[in-house]
Amino acid sequence: MKNIYLGVEKSIKDLQNIFKNTDDRDEKLKQFNQEALEVFQQLESKSLKELESLKNNEEWENFTIAFYGETNAGKSTLIECLRLFFKEQSKVVQQERFKRLYSNYQNNYQNDERKRQAILNELHSLQDGAIIGDGRSDFTLKTQSYPFQYNHQNFILLDVPGIEGSEQKVIDQISNATQKAHAIFYVTKTPNPPQKGEEGKRGTIEKIQKQLDSQTEVWTIFNKPINSPRALKDELVNESEKGSLKILNKEMKNILGKHYMGYKAVSAQAAFYGLSQALIPETDFDKKKQKFLKDFKAEELLYQSHFKPLAEFIAEELLKNSRAKIIQSNCNKALKVVEELQNTIKTTIEKWIDPMIKARQEYKEEVDDNLDRFTDKFISDLENSALDEIDQFYWRNNGRAY
How far is CA 129 from the centre of its chain? Predict the structure, then answer.
């Protein structure tokens, strides 16, 4: 990343020098040079800021998966199920603490209302499902990171704030999480394609296009809400929903191109009732769990909800070749910034610089020649920087990525 960063910085400095190293005895020419320099200095600041952000957020050691999507789509429920299924360490510690505290709660303090309530409050914060939203659009305001170790592989799951809530509160959290992630699950509770914005307001399509277009691997998770065990007795995804998901796939492919991989369907809510163990009796979670367990065994819920196949896909397919995926993802994000910079420079030259050059014919030949040489050299220099970065990372890791 450092080589790419320095490559961008050098290339823009070279471009700025075109306007520094000219005869500026002519006052109009001097003013033109100054205005052109200011334009490219702004480009330099913006591009280097984006690369600096990537450099600060990049993750080279652990394969990182971000759960991104609409508010109340069930991202936290999915992650809670994965924590339970893969026995994530902090979740195991929480469950053990819950069981000890609940035993203490049952055997003591029945006559001390104040202490009893304090323990009950702590039990609520420790029980399975405590991270699951309560229906408020902004329940998750900060990206939560959960480290896992499974089958001798380390990976991280990121629970990202919803893109439909008060986005200004969480825009940096969303941006940092997508920069850190090597794969994205776009979670939606409906099978319909994401909607466009209207009246100057960005819709889900525009947000996905802006926030995920530099990703190398994006999947959709259709997280179907299931409130009744009866609904699980039929096929999880019906024919109408399959038709809608086919359209969703097409729309996402149009937005993200080759980096969009397809969809997975699941009902995390039903899976949670099959996985949860540390629940306060008679709470809403516990009552719903008991209702589902009247019709299904816990293990059956994991299959009927399609959760078991999803968890196996993550462990066996998504994490495969994770070292190579990390390199590819991080370099792809940096090259995306470079590509956007290249397009911005080209547009700026065509729309703003060229007309001013034409107005100063005696200046045109000198600047045109310099700009042509710069444009030819720009892409190859930066691509070489990226390739050098990949090679250096490869040798630092003794070729383990491949």
Answer: 22
The answer to whether residues 250 and 287 belong to one domain is: yes
How far, in Å, CA of 57 to CA of 106, rounded? 46
Beta strands in 80-167 (DSSP E): 144-150, 153-159
Structure tokens, 259: 């980096």
pLDDT, tens digit (0-9, with 9 covering 90-100), for 266-288: 999 999 999 999 999 999 999 99
Q: Say whether both 214 and 303 belong to one domain.
A: yes
* pTM reported for the whole predicted model: 0.81
Q: 390 is in which domain, residue-wise?
A: 2-57+329-396
Give the integer Cα–Cα distance in Å for 272 and 225.
12
The count of domains in the chain is 2
- Residues 214 and 142 grouped into a single domain: yes
Cα separation values, 209 from 67, 312, 344, Å: 16, 29, 18
**Rg of the chain over all Cα atoms, to the nearest angstrom:** 27
DSSP for residue 227: -
Question: Per the domain annotation, does 402 fall within a domain?
Answer: no
- Report the sign of the C-alpha dihedral through residues 355, 357, 359, 364, in that order: negative
136 with 251, same domain: the answer is yes
CATH number at residue 118: 3.40.50.300
Last residue of a domain, one of 320, 342, 358: 320
Give the pLDDT of residue 294: 96
- How much of the chain exceeds pLDDT 70, in percent? 76
Domain annotation covers residue 401: no
- Secondary structure element (H or E) that encloses residue 220, with its range: strand 218-223
